Structure formats: structure tokens, C-alpha cells
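User: I've been trying to design a sequence by hand for this structure and keep getting stuck. Would you show me what you'd pick, starting by listing the structure so we're on the same page?

Assistant: Good idea, let's start from the same input. This is the structure you sent:
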């Protein structure tokens, strides 16, 4: 249920932006959304908010923030770097009855697992494009699994969204797809046209929804990251050549994983990458103990 009374009690977003001189800065990846129907659709994609803490990166003038609060979030923690937005968000906190905590600063420096410990967390964000992929990789590679978040509902450039859900034998398939699909279920919920943003970005965007899942195989994250980085770092080469950058002889790794060395990275599915990671971990272990 959307709290329409709360939404209609708020001043129009464009007015708030003009009043606080929050003209969009490219350096901060600022492309704002104003359409409440679209913003509510993003929040609905996340699922029910009852019993969850919501975490938002980059609330800016607060369009998505309003939609999250109107959908009934009891507690919303938002990290914003642009100081021009802070008084706007403080006002929104007051109007929402103190449900919004704003953390001023850089989201890349926040230790979310500690900050958000306690209730289950839904992360909902229209991410700044310059740190979007780095944040996603951080949330996908948390040491503990299941992670501190129970869902991620994130806006990306469409091209990044496609890399997250890509399947083998496609040009989009790479490290991001393997990390995202190893122990999560990502899907593209819907596309968002450029014109929905102010100012419009150069490309179409898409909302991606990700939920944690059982890992396809229980392999060390470090090894999975190492083999995917090596294999896709030189994706045109055969694995017997590209895996040399691991600093180990690739032959026993490929043999142990039962993967022919003349294949290329993009034909391997996620279970095959897990076998490579397990073989890599076993070899590293035997090196350590010898
Ligand atoms: N949520 C708003 C919306 O949907 O209209 C704004 C989204 S805009 C794409 C990205 C926001 O992230 C901006 O408000 C920008 O100031 C903020 N931002 C950029 N880099 C950031 C960082 N490293 N940490 C926290 N916020 C950041």
C-alpha cells in the first residue's frame, strides 16, 4: 500500500531542487527521477518492506527515497555524497516521522555489513554509474553467505544489466555474470528509457533484481575470482594460455576440473568455473603444505 497522503504532503521535487540549487553534476553521476509511478514500480520490484531495513545509495533530491518511505519502510538508511542534498533529506526525515537516517559521505567507504547488522536488509538504489559496478561486486562478494542483504533492486545502464544476467556463449558473459550467478539469482525487471531521467543519460537503463541463493558449488571466493579474472582477462585466448596469468601451471588445474585446455572462457558455464576454482584452491593448498 502506497501512502498517498504522505506523498501529496511533500513539496514537488523540481521545486525542492531549484530551492537548494541541486543542478545535476555529471561528476557525481546525477540523473534524477521524478515520476512517482516509475519510482513506486522500482520499490514494488524489491518486494514487501515490512520487517526490513532499506539501504539506499545516492538518494540525491529524494525521489526514490520518497517512494520507499511511502511504501511503508520503517527504517531507511541512505548514503549521499553531495552536501547540497543533505538539508533536503533532513527535511524528508522530519516529514516521514524520523524514519530516514542520512549518512553523509562516500558509499564506497561505508562498512554496510556492520552498519546494517540486525534486521534483514533490502538495498534499493538508482546507482551513480561511476561506482555502480564496484558496489555490486562488493555486495556479491561478501565473506558471509547468505549475505547481510536479502535483496538488491538496482538501476544500471542497460549494458551493465545485460552483463549481470548474461549466459555463456554471448559477448556479455564475463566475470560479472559468473560472480552474480554463482550464488544469487539476478533478473532484469524492466527497462527505463533515457527520457525518464533529468538530465537524460546517453543510454537506456534497466532495473535489476537480485536475491541470494544456495551457491552452485561451495568453492573459495578468492579462487573463483582468480580464475574468472584470468580466464576473461584474455577472453580470446584458449584457457591453457589465459590461465597462465594465475602464476601456476594451468595443465593440472584444467585436468582436475575436467575441462579441455583449448576452450575459451566464454563457453564455460558457472558450474565449470566452480570446478576450475575448486581445482585452483586444491593446488594452492598443496603448494602451501609442501
Ligand atoms: N536517487 C536519486 C534519483 O533516483 O533521482 C538520484 C540518483 S543519481 C543517479 C545518483 C546519486 O548518487 C546522486 O545523488 C549522487 O550525488 C550520489 N552519489 C554519487 N557518488 C556517490 C558516492 N560515491 N556515494 C554516495 N552517493 C553518491
Amino acid at each position: 500500500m502506497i501512502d498517498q497522503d504522505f506523498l501529496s504532503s511533500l513539496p514537488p521535487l523540481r521545486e525542492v531542487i531549484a530551492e537548494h540549487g541541486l543542478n545535476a553534476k555529471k561528476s557525481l553521476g546525477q540523473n534524477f527521477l521524478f515520476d512517482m509511478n516509475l519510482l513506486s514500480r522500482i520499490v514494488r520490484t524489491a518486494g514487501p518492506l515490512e520487517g526490513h531495513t532499506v539501504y539506499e545509495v545516492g538518494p540525491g533530491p529524494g525521489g526514490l527515497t520518497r517512494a520507499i518511505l511511502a511504501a511503508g519502510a520503517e527504517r531507511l538508511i541512505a548514503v549521499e555524497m553531495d552536501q547540497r542534498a543533505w538539508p533536503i533529506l533532513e527535511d524528508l526525515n522530519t516529514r516521514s516521522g524520523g524514519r530516514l537516517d542520512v549518512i553523509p559521505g562516500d558509499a564506497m567507504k561505508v562498512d554496510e555489513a556492520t552498519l546494517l547488522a540486525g534486521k534483514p536488509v533490502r538495498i534499493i538504489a538508482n546507482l551513480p554509474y561511476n561506482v555502480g559496478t564496484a558496489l555490486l561486486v562488493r555486495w556479491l562478494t561478501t565473506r558471509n553467505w547468505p549475505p547481510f542483504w536479502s535483496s538488491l533492486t538496482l538501476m544500471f545502464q542497460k549494458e551493465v544489466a545485460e552483463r549481470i544476467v548474461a549466459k555463456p556463449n554471448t559477448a556479455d558473459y564475463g566475470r560479472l555474470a559468473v560472480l552474480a550467478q554463482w550464488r544469487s539469482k539476478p533478473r532484469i525487471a524492466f527497462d527505463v528509457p533515457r527520457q525518464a531521467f533529468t538530465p537524460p543519460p546517453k543510454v537506456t537503463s534497466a532495473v535489476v533484481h537480485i536475491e541470494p541463493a544456495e551457491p552452485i558449488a561451495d568453492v573459495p571466493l578468492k579462487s573463483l575470482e582468480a580464475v574468472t579474472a584470468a580466464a576473461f582477462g584474455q577472453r580470446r585466448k584458449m584457457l591453457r594460455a589465459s590461465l597462465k596469468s594465475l602464476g601456476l601451471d594451468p595443465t593440472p588445474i584444467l585436468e582436475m576440473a575436467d575441462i579441455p585446455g583449448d576452450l575459451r572462457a566464454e563457453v564455460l558455464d558457472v558450474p565449470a568455473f566452480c570446478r576450475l576454482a575448486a581445482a585452483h584452491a586444491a593446488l594452492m593448498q598443496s603448494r602451501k603444505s609442501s
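That's my pick for every position. To get oriented when you compare it with your attempt: The pocket of S-adenosylmethionine is lined by residues 28-33, 57-60, 63-64, 79-82, 85, 106-108, 126, 128, 131 (CB under 6 Å). The chain has two domains: 4-212, 221-289.
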